[in-house]
Amino acid sequence: MIADLGFKATKSFLTACLVLFAVQGTAGIWDDGNIEEGQALFNANCASCHKVTNEVLAAPGLAGIADRWGASEELLVQWIQNPQGAAESGDSYIKSLVSRYVPTYGWMTAQAVSAEDVKNIMAYVQNPPDAAPVADSGSDCITVDELPIEEANNDSGVWFVMLLVLFLIIAMAAAGVNRSLTNASREKDGGALLEDLPYGQRVKMWAWENRVAVSLIGVFIVAYGAVLGYQGLMRVGVVEGYKPNQPIQFIHSVHVCENEVDCKYCHHSAYESKHAGIPSTNVCMNCHKAVKKGRRYGETEIGKIYEAIGFDATSGTYVDGEGKNGYASPQDTYDGDPIRWNKVHNLPDHVFFSHQQHVVVGGLQCQNCHGDVETYTVGRVAKVEDINQLVDKYPGLIELSKPTLTMGWCIECHNKAEIDLASSGYYEEIHHRLKDHLRGNEELRMYMEDDKITVKELGGWECAKCHY
Amino acid sequence: MMNIRNSIVLSAVATVLVATTGCVNNPDSSGLEYMPDMYRSPAVEAYVDYGQDPYQVGEEVASSQRMVQSARKPVAGTIAFHPEAMDFVMPYPYPNTVEGYEAAGLALASPLTQIGQAEIEAGQEIYTLMCTQCHGEEGKGNGALSRNGHIQGIPSYSDKLKDLPEGKMYHTLTYGKGLMGSHASQLSQKDRWLVIEYIKVLQQGGEMPEFDENGNVVKSASTEAGDAMAMNN
Asked: Is the reported ipTM for this assembly greater than 0.85?
């Protein structure tokens, strides 16, 4: 009996506590929280999945949660601290949440926050202050506003040819008018009329009358043509400055410089393939699942990624499931129109080139051949003079003189680039064999006359190294 | 009269000069090519598919060939054959579900047999290339994308993810989790296990363990903690 009483007393005490807690909760969870503390907590714990707007990131946006939340406030706290535990409570609102969101976004991670923290977070979620402008991180990156806007440039020589034709017509007409006027005045004066010669004869006569000027101009035109022709021929096969339009107005500077995404994050196959690789759309999505708006082009350019991969930006989910069927990633199963990038650096088909050899074995920096891509918008073939100016910024850059992507440029570098014999077992073995061999030893001494072994000396100038 | 003629001649010359120097400068054209068929061969190359010679097969056939993706996927169900590294080419058995994530955390263990200086440093290199822009140099979740306010709330390895088992890390790298996407297309299976070795170092605060002259781990923060626990017990 006494035990029973005791039990009852404990029970009523507990009930009282619960009621008290609930009352405090009503007063606290949605009101009186500290917005600033809430913001810090939110950014640390919630922001990787939730936004305070309606936007869906990796979980529903939290705008209007106070009106939406249909369970008790303790359950909200519990839901945040231990979602699976809260689901076991059997509350119908929680059940609806689970059935609606967990299949798409998975379970929310249990967060180590107190009820007081939740109060602060809810204060922030309900009244988020306007986002402060992103502080300038003091980097020396070119900002988006400083970059030129790419425009389809379809200028051609047609204009000038048209002008030239127009000018010739005017000149001929003027000559005709001049002739008629002369004839008219002579007729009036009673002088002899101009002979009625064929047009070609008349041009000849005019040229003879002005023979000094005409011959001078002729010589000049021939010389000028010769120079132009020579320059034109020297530009055959030189692709410096080639910058084709791309399907997406991509801005390298924002990605590489501002957000410090390494070249090889997107062009990751540079390490293991002859191609540096154009990133597949799922690589774009590693960031653009969260970053849905660009500073210059807003949603239009990023929207092209979503269209290609089948991503619904408003719900934050892939149209074709999250690649849940085994190993497949979303673009494996979504039958969208791929983004057709235009290849910029294109070597002739009879040239073998491997990024892997140059990046992994040679240890070259990307900038040595591609220039300061972190200041670019879309990709382009860098000019060799521009690359040479980067020596201070990227120590170890090899300065060259021939136009980029020409054979002269390749072999010039092979003649300059030094091989570190200790850098790999392969070179160590070569070094070993040269040293131990009588003739090889002589050759090695010859190589080492300038105190370095270049790529050329180990066969970098052999035709079959690149052409086979 | 002569003056007019002279000026006519001079302006004609000027027009010719301008016409020839202001040459075609279209950025969409890579310029003149010597023997274009040697640049643009019908052989299938990754990222450039010119199709067969349009002069021979017609522009229609050639252009439809250009629109076919040249990079192909391996035949379904095949695996790469690396006799000495079969552990790193087998299909990943855990499904991309919540249960798969938990199961991987419990049962999945690194197939790396030797973990020493070379492995951890290789992992660090991969980490620096592939992870720092979000997770930050020290794995505290303060990479540039986070500092610039693009992606927030990235958990710190040494704090929230301190006890994350390697199986879960591998699962996340393979399928992605939350905002993080799958990195399976960028990192080979071995790369993924190598970077996990470095993330384990970051979980312990980021200090590299000590290595002996053979590159074996002598003492790491985690083994020290283990020793201390063993002594307490």
From this structure: no
